[in-house]
Amino acid sequence: MITRTPASLHTIPHTSHESRASEAFSSAAEAPSAPNDWRAQLRDVIRSPQALLERLGLEREWLPGARDGHELFAIRVPEAYASRIRANDPDDPLLRQVLPLDAETDVLDGYVTDPLEEAEHTPLPGLIHKYTNRVLLMASGGCAINCRYCFRRHFPYDDHQPSRAQWQDILDYLRADERIHEVILSGGDPLVSPDKRLAWLVESLGEIPHLKRLRIHTRLPVVIPDRVNDELLGWLGATRLQKVLVIHTNHANELDDAVAAAMTRLKSAGVTLLNQGVILRGVNDSVEVQTALAERLFECGVLPYYLHAFDPVQGAAHFAVSDEEACNLMEALLEHLPGFLMPRLVREVPGRRSKTPLSKPPVSKPPVSKPTVSKTHPGVDAATGPSASSPAGDEREPSSLNPTGIIASA
Ligand SMILES: *Cc1c(COP(=O)(O)O)cnc(C)c1O
Ligand code: SF4
Q1: For ligand 2, is residue 150 a contact (CB within 6 Å)?
Q2: Residues 352 and 374 occupy one common structural domain
Q3: Phi first, then psi: what are they for 272, rounded to 5°?
């Protein structure tokens, strides 16, 4: 493997942004593939119901459901991920994330195709500007893996694939709004894009003075750990922007040694590593699984960030975990994890300018033992006197202590 340091990347001759942009946008500019090449792994994915069942030794009874679901949202599973799925086990938590079931074709009330109403916050194709000081760029339409619960499974990615000219418009937009401090590369999966294009984009972002941080939301380092290659570390290491990479994983079994090694490489490039996951029925809706996930993440140098409450996206109802169950799980989790390994349970609520934390309704305050005037008069309250005794139930926390007060919408 050729080792390219950030310094050697700077030696690539270039004349202007325009010419670098054209190079970045031509796929012919990519080098030929090497062993362990992530692009070969991205190309040679399992993409049919038959192939997935055969690879995992599953019975043919799963085929009709898999075919129906596949029609709605194509199967896509890289071998590196399939190798972490237990063979012949229809309940495997990784398998559940990628195998379509009959249930996907159910059309249910309250289940929608754009639960986040993101289409309303796209000032330019490929740009979602919903929160004041941070924007989300759809840096790529595709993903390495197709997750059955994806809330963007119905998103019209093809309409949001910026062309080169559109990228220039996006950069102009970012330059013009000094409130924006952070750019989040999202998708799809932004790391599906070629390194040359990402290097060009990140270098262009670095030239906008008011930008402080670059954040990348990606599942690729988990799905195909070889994606964390020298080229990626090169452009990531070269930017002046502070770097945060938010991986997406839902179960400790996804985090094998190859993923751990990829995380170590990212860390050594000065990247802060966080994880976001989704709470999913039959995958990670238990205290044991969430505890093991948080512990394993920390072993890999990653802190839990968000645990997304389930969104009622059509085709994914079989993963539904109610808000009440999710809140109960979080409460139980507190006893098993140090505070810094607790993910924040959140939901994206259309119209709000941030994620909305979910929490249980306020609980009654434990009874406070108040000083008494004297042991011979135990019923007399030193502060208020005997006449001020309050009726039962008055000892509640004021509701302002639960500012988030999320109302279950599902
Ligand atoms: C989630 C999200 C962000 C990032 O939110 P953080 O709370 O900063 O992680 C930004 N923009 C949009 C549209 C989002 O959905
Ligand atoms: S990687 Fe993320 S965006 Fe892509 S299918 Fe999975 S959940 Fe959706």
Answers
A1: yes
A2: no
A3: -80, 130
